[in-house]
Specification:
The complex is a heterodimer of chains A (about 170) and B (about 290). Chain A is mainly β and about 170 residues long. Helices cover about 10% and strands about 40% of the residues of chain A. A five-stranded mixed beta sheet of chain A has the order 4-3-2-6-7. The longest helix of chain A has 14 residues, at about 1-15. Chain B has one domain. Chain B is built from three helices and 18 strands. In chain B, strands 2, 5, 8, 9, 10, 14, 15, 17 and 18 form a nine-stranded mixed beta sheet that branches. In chain B, strands 1, 3, 4, 6 and 7 form a five-stranded antiparallel beta sheet that branches. In chain B, strands 11, 12, 13 and 16 form a four-stranded antiparallel beta sheet that branches. In chain B, a hairpin with a 2-residue loop joins strand 12 (about 185-195) and strand 13. The longest helix of chain B has 14 residues, at about 5-15. The N and C termini of chain B lie far apart (about 60 Å). The chains are: A mainly beta (about 170), B mainly beta (about 290). Chains A and B meet through helix 2 of A and strand 2 of B.
């Protein structure tokens, strides 16, 4: 019985439907474009995406860093994703289950995350800012801030970086 | 002439014994203050110079004390003293805030024995004072100094264990954590003198990079009734912060302040500062938003 219910829950979220057991769950679709650079030395950027809401602790959604470096050495440069490190990163442990992953190549990256389960807390009604910050070794750093309002049904926001980030968008559905 | 020679000689001795009183700015410059990961090193330059933070005058040779986030004593490694600067490394293995401090505590002074003026030996502590002044000494003049020069480095999230006051000299109590500073934001620090909030202390903050600009950009502040001072950082970078009970203009030079001219001092001082001398110096890193 318990097993079946879990199965149902997963299916329900996938279909965007709502069952009592999933009342707090929301789907977050993130799109992050990393521009292709013509530079002598290119390293994939460290990227963090997080949600800010006034009066609430920032919620990290995703962090891309050098997870495979020996001895956890990739964590040494997490602090270069400066605003995120101050807002949330410095009180987290790495690797962060369900949140951190490897760095990504230039291109458009689409992520589907579920809030209200696992590592990401449910999104309660209010004004939010989705922040995406990218910091590149021997390169620059840039933030894109996307304000939106969540009333409980759906919200979208789109923005664009000028150097380290291309188009960034967020779409949240119940 | 007979009188002037010994005074000059004494001034020279005191300059050696108490560099903080006469010299330039003393500073500790860490390679990094906001650090992620769990196994890192910081390296620190320690020097005395006019231009911040350029080592071009004297090294600060004292071996500092490291206090780890859990309150235990850490280790200074690879300490080396060069012509212009000393350097050393600290291995960070704990999460939280480390303190790296050079605290100079001592007594300076002189006495007259059989018509001859003698200096109290360098490195004398308050407790040893009675043993270094021989019986029959007259005209004993002493001054006590406690100069604290410390920096903070944080691996992971900032912690506050290392700020537990010792209750001696001037100490910093964070209202804003010194490893959580961002340009354009205001930071508040509280200063204690012998463990109690100290009102009216003179606080000087100077951004580094002096060599490449014409204006010093010095910020002069005073602590309020609670010993607090609020500083808004105009730009990111390393800042030198100096706290003294006396304004540099009032009489003797403040420790850590720009070079004083001993010739301009009243001859009665004889190169020996009177009373008690306390100061606090730190280097703060302010990050870009």
């Amino acid at each position: 019985m318990q097993f079946r219910l879990t199965g149902w829950t997963t299916a329900a979220i996938g279909a965007g439907a709502l069952l009592p057991g999933t009342a707090g769950a929301q789907t977050i679709d993130l799109s992050i474009e990393l521009p292709r650079m013509t530079v002598a030395e290119y390293h994939r950027p460290y990227v963090a995406a997080w949600l800010e809401k006034e009066g609430a602790a920032p919620q990290t959604l995703s962090v891309w860093y050098d997870v495979d470096k020996r001895g956890g050495e990739g964590t040494k440069w997490l602090r270069d994703v400066r605003q995120w490190w101050r807002a949330a990163g410095r009180s987290m442990r790495f690797p962060a289950d369900g949140i951190s992953g490897a760095t990504r190549a230039p291109g458009v990256h689409k992520l589907r995350l579920v809030a209200g389960r696992g590592a990401i807390a449910a999104i309660t009604p209010g004004s939010y800012v989705l922040v995406v910050e990218a910091a590149r070794e021997v390169g620059g750093r840039e933030l894109v801030r996307l304000p939106f309002r969540w009333t409980g049904t759906s919200a979208t926001a789109v923005g664009k970086g000028s150097a380290e980030l291309g188009t960034v968008s967020v779409s949240i559905k119940r | 002439m007979k009188l002037r020679t010994p005074i000059l000689a004494m001034a020279a001795v005191v300059a050696l014994a108490a560099p903080a009183a006469w010299a330039h700015r003393m500073w500790l410059l860490p390679s990094s203050t906001v650090i992620s990961g769990s196994d890192n090193w910081v390296t620190v330059d320690a020097a005395v110079s006019n231009d911040l933070f350029f080592f071009d005058h004297r090294p600060m040779a004292a071996i500092p004390t490291v206090t780890q986030p859990d309150g235990s004593e850490g280790k200074v490694e690879h300490h080396a003293v060069g012509q212009f600067r000393a350097t050393f490394d600290v291995h960070l293995t704990q999460q939280g805030t480390y303190r790296i401090a050079v605290v100079n505590e001592g007594v300076f002074g002189r006495y007259v024995l059989n018509g001859e003026t003698k200096m109290i030996p360098r490195g004398t502590t308050k407790a040893q004072l009675a043993t270094v002044i021989p019986a029959g000494a007259t005209d004993v003049q002493t001054s006590e100094a406690l100069t604290r020069n410390e920096i903070f480095v944080t691996q992971g999230a900032p912690t506050t264990t290392v700020f537990t006051p010792a209750g001696r000299g001037i100490e910093l109590v964070p209202v804003t954590h010194p490893n959580d500073l961002v340009a354009g934001e205001a930071a508040t620090f509280q200063f204690l003198l012998d463990g109690k909030p100290a009102a009216g202390l003179y606080v000087t903050a100077i951004p580094g990079g002096i060599r490449y600009r014409d204006k010093l950009k010095q910020m002069d502040l005073r602590t309020d009734a609670q010993g607090k001072v609020k500083i808004t950082w105009p730009e990111p970078g390393m800042y030198w912060l100096n706290v003294t009970p006396n304004a540099p203009q009032e009489g003797r030079p403040a420790p850590g302040a720009a070079a004083a001219a001993p010739q301009g001092q009243a001859p009665a001082m004889g190169g020996v500062p009177s009373g008690r001398r306390v100061s606090y110096t730190t280097t703060l890193e302010v990050l870009a938003p």
